[in-house]
Amino acid sequence: MSLNKWLSNGHSPIQNGNHQPKRALRIAGASGGVFDRFRSIEDFAADPTIDVIFGDWMSEISMAFRGSEKADRQSSLQEQEALAFEMSFIAALKPGLKNIAKHKQKVTVNAGACDAEAMARKVQDLCVEYGTDLKVSWVTGDDVTEQVKDLISKGETFLSLPSETPITDWGVEPIFAQCYLGGVGICEALKGGADIVICGRVADASPVIGTAMWWHGWEREEFDKLGYALVAGHLIECSAYITGGSFTGFKKDLLKANNCTNLGFPIAEIESNGQFIITKEEKAGGIVTVETVAAQLIYEIQGPFYYNSDVTANLENIKLIQESPNRVRVLGVIGSPPPPTTKVGITAKGGWQAEFHFFLTGLDIKEKAEMVERQTIASMGDYRKDFHTLKFTVTGSVPERPKNQDEATVDLRIFAQTQNADLVSAGEHKGVAPDTPSFAKWCIENCLQGYPGATPAMDMRQGIGKPYFEYWVALFPQELAKHEVHTFDGKTIPIPSPKNTKIYPRQQPSYETSSPLPSSTWGETVQAPLGYVVHGRSGDKSSDCNVGFFVRNDDEWGWLRSILTIAKIRELLEDEDKGGKIDRFEIPGIRAVHFLLRDHLDRGVNSSSSYDCLGKNVCEYLRVKMVDIPKIFLDRGRI
Q: What confidence tier does 435 reach under pLDDT thresholds 50, 70, 90?
């Protein structure tokens, strides 16, 4: 949107302080993670139609890693500073600072990770260095390590959200705990005149909620409006995931259209009644369609209720309308009070992990892998018992008629975890040596008595252990979090927990479809991969994996909801079915069926033994599975 067009529509630049404009808030999603493209803040800062730049720099990985850094610093006698926040935000912020000041924009981020104060002070120094008068405040209260340890000592079980097991079964010692805060602290910081608000573990969407509350003057109990803001934040917090990233329809509109190298970052235009439009940068690539928005909507959700510390949003009635190219309106969000609890992530040091790879080519792959496994375990001898994880995995398969040697080669990965650093060459003896017992030595020493063509990966560095973390997710009482705002002028403002809350069942609603239709409803069917006509997306929350599917046309909806039962998902998973609980619900307005595979991902990303540690390929695995598809759907062309 050009500045002249923006001004001609009755808009005006925002003012610092407590001014509450009633036009739509234009908030830009500048980051979905630590390694997202750095250009976003600079480009959004150069656009005077952007009111607020928001970004998500945190994940379960950063919570564990930065939390460990902070715990190590606190337990150390040395005064050296550990960077328990995300420096990549500062690198991204620098080139945009002067324009942020010029255009009177606001910035709200969670890049403070596990030390929001330290980052805020660095950012304030940077603002002065760049000759601006930008004011920086920060939010604390997410570090609940002491509260969690105290509650555990008093018998609190902190039941795991994925597995429903008590934390006493975990077997490791908590070193750090962070709870997910809401957006009210951000709202108060902005009311107090802050230009940049640095947070730690606020929930991914909380900066959008807090910013919208400040902009429109919403109260804490306007739950429908807050619910819309929660969904808006969910949609834009993964940056380009809503403008074509990870989109199963990528071939036509992105790859073949030569539109895939610079996907635009997203923008939400949030109106005073809460309703909003999703769009993107005009001068960048990518697309915003009903399908790209639907794909992000079903990503990393846990059921029909989306919980936040400020509000609960019901997703079942959401509808999407393509108002114009690259502009999608979101309707149908229903808000209700938040729960009295919030999610808490608890970190522990898990030990050491390493891996080793062999390349297997041609015939007898199964037998070759079996030979490697037997020989490696025999070499370990009594040391085998010191590895609590030892996994041999073949990735890939050899086609019947390979056209080259690469096609005929698969990877055998040996993955190990242990509490003994010496056994992975990371303790007293660092590095792999022929005369020192170690994981990598036991893997490689059998090459000359190995399978035909035995070839190890020549980079031994993966065989040297690195520390890994265990991560536990449970619920924590909001009232026990010391939520505070620390202002640029030295004030501390306490943020009370919400007074109007609602206790929700621990188990989200899960159901099969009503009135399923027989496959004969659509005439002749053909066996084909599910993904020929079905879009989808999957992701992780701790060790839970969510996967959602949706179709392109209204007449395909009855077929999708009828065929995709819980039993059918188990059938399609085949060997990947861990036997855990599977939840199911529907969003008819976007023709979607959603499944939650409980405790599916081997402890989650921080300690997973799987290549798909984030669960993002579960959907792609299921989309390649063969199902009976009505021929009339296939005749429309495959996705």
A: confident
